[in-house]
Amino acid sequence: MKKIGLIALLAALLCGAAVYLYLGSVEQRIAAANQVQEIEMTQVVVADRLIPAMTPITEDMLRYEQYPADYVNAGAAKSFEQVVGLLSDGTVVEGELILTAKLGTAEEIGTGLSCRVPDGMRAMTVNLETDAGAGGYITKGDRIDLMLYVTAEAEEGSKSGLRTESGETYRIGGSVVTVVLEAAEVLELGEVTFDSDGGGLYSGVTLALTPKDCLKLYAAMKQGQLYAALRQRDDVSRTDGGFYTVSDLLNG
């Protein structure tokens, strides 16, 4: 009987040890689970939609999200106030963290068109068909001349015509060609699109012009067809700037 009691006691001790070890394992798992649940989260600003480069950021482009604090870049924006009104130096895709190091004003980033207009100049855009735009070979930074082709017939005895810079009136008697602008610097160039016939159109050739040249270009755009001649980039030489009839040019 004593042996049976001893065996029962040992069995009880073993069962107790097993229960203790099991409970310890359960407590460890619970503690580990609690540790996972206690990961610190932080609020960050992300793009709610695609934000193109150099576009002023508004609140409707943003949203808040919660990120694990240990995985958030130190330069991530935490509030809309840090972002709204600024520009990004590159495209920001939807859901991307907004990093303050990539934001700034146009002057700070230094790539805005207004920052690249030379002192005293203006930026003005003109559309050109590719056959009138050096065949589509114009690129940013080039210099071009713009020529105006006008078709008009003056009535007999009419004093109407084109006035030169010296104030002299040049009577129109048929088609006339003149150089409107010379050595104009190309600041920006839009995409070239082509129609079914193979013809193309620049979405915009933006030039650096003096205020007076802006007026000349606007007037020329209202008179007839403009054509561009591509220059060597460092060539800023000037021509006589006269008006020529087709007869003058073909028979001269």
Helix content: 10-25%
Q: H/E element string?
A: HEEEEHHEEEEEEEEHEEH
Strand content: 25-35%
The major β-sheet equals: 6 strands, antiparallel
Number of strands: 14
SS class: alpha+beta
Q: What gross morphology would you assign?
A: elongated
Mean pLDDT, to the nearest integer, reads 77
| Distance N to C terminus | 140 Å
Oligomeric state of this protein: single chain
What radius of gyration results from the CA coordinates? Answer: 37 Å
Number of helices: 5
Q: Which spans of ≥5 residues are poorly predicted at pLDDT below 50?
A: 154-160
Provide a descriptive summary of the structure in words.
There is one protein chain. With about 250 residues, the chain is an alpha+beta fold. The termini are far apart. The model is unreliable at about 155-160 (pLDDT under 50). The strands form five sheets. Strands 5, 6, 9, 12, 13 and 14 form a six-stranded antiparallel β-sheet that branches. It has helices spanning about 1-35, 105-110, 115, 210-220, 245-250, and strands spanning about 40-45, 60-70, 85-90, 105, 120-125, 145-155, 160-165, 170, 175-190, 190-195, 200, 205-210, 225-230, 245. It is elongated. It is built from five helices and 14 strands.
Q: Layout of SSEs?
A:
Elements: H1 2-37, E1 41-47, E2 62-68, E3 87-88, E4 103-104, H2 106-109, H3 113-116, E5 122-126, E6 143-153, E7 161-163, E8 169-171, E9 173-189, E10 192-194, E11 200-202, E12 205-209, H4 211-221, E13 225-230, E14 243-245, H5 246-251
Antiparallel strand pairs: 1-2, 3-4, 5-12, 6-9, 6-13, 7-8, 9-12, 9-14, 10-11
